[in-house]
Amino acid sequence: MKISSVALGLTLGILWGAAMCVIGAIHSIFPGYGAEFFRLMASIYPGIAGTGELSDIVVATLYGLLDGFFFGFLMAWLYNFALKKVVRR
Q1: What is the dihedral of CA 27, 41, 57, 50, to 10 degrees?
Q2: Which residue of 1, 12, 28, 83 is 20 to 30 Å from 54, comparing CA positions?
Q3: Cα–Cα distance, 24 to 54 (Å, whole number)
């Protein structure tokens, strides 16, 4: 059974983007929460300072949406490719 690449990409993009947004929002209210997570994200994604300001949250959310979509799409494509090679009909 094939997996829809776009559907998995959208699902993972929305989930990762929402996680970045929620953690960022909580971090802006309680600065100790998710501080290490934001420092890690700042080391991976350019444009994130790790301060928990609104601009950081917006940039992190956009990166999460794009990153999640890309890797979800790639995972589904690789799965479908491997499925074609393994299951010969």
Answers
A1: 60
A2: 12
A3: 8
Close Cβ partners of 22 (under 8 Å, ≥ 6 residues apart): none
Q: Could you give the 3-state DSSP secondary structure of residue 71?
A: helix
pLDDT digits (tens, 9 = 90+) for 31-80: 888 888 888 888 888 888 877 788 888 999 999 999 999 999 999 999 99
Reported in sequence order, the residue ranges of the chain that DSSP labels E, i.e. its strands, are none
Stated pTM of the model: 0.84
